[in-house]
Amino acid sequence: MAIDTNGSSPSGYGPDHPAPVIEPPRARTRRTPRTTRTNFEMYGWLFMRVSGILLVVLVITHLMIQLVLDGGVSKVSFAFVAGRWASPFWQAWDLIMLWLAMLHGGLGLRTIINDYAQRDGTRFWLKMLLYTATVFTVLLGTLVIFTFDPNIS
């Protein structure tokens, strides 16, 4: 490092003026959880990328088949859905879309909650509400797909 004529470095720090100490952004306290050996965040990141690509393919194909090839929205009715869900292929298609969309959206909202909820209690209750809504929707949607009865009168 070069020294000026007055004996200080170009940055203004020297033997008489030490550089300021920068604390780590989140100093470890007794309440800070210990590091775990799981790679949940990495797997979550990977899941978001893969599920996003799969969802784009599934949803665009679904829309093309339902709205373009099958005559548009005017054809969609209870009987139309009953006919579709009589096939295990369409049940599986809709089930995969449901599960991927709910898990993808839930994981995305979890990230938003972690980023923006500042208080631990608020973060905890928002995530509990999110998890409850996600599990409820996935279970209810799965139940409807597999127990759909076209003979309801």
TrEMBL record:
Cited InterPro entries: SQR/QFR_C/D, Succ_DH_anchor, SuccDH_FuR_B_TM-su
Cofactor(s) demanded: heme
Compartment(s): Membrane
Membrane-topology annotation of the record: Multi-pass membrane protein
Region (Disordered) residue spans: 1-33
Chief subcellular location: membrane
Highest taxon listed in the record's lineage: Bacteria
CDD domains named in the record: SQR_TypeA_SdhD_like (cd03500)
Swiss-Prot/TrEMBL keywords: Electron transport, Heme, Iron, Membrane, Metal-binding, Transmembrane, Transmembrane helix, Transport, Tricarboxylic acid cycle
Membrane-spanning intervals of the chain: 46-69, 89-107, 128-148
Start-end of Polar residues biased regions: 1-11
Function noted in UniProt: Membrane-anchoring subunit of succinate dehydrogenase (SDH).
Metabolic or biological pathway: Carbohydrate metabolism; tricarboxylic acid cycle
Name listed for the protein in its UniProt record: Succinate dehydrogenase hydrophobic membrane anchor subunit
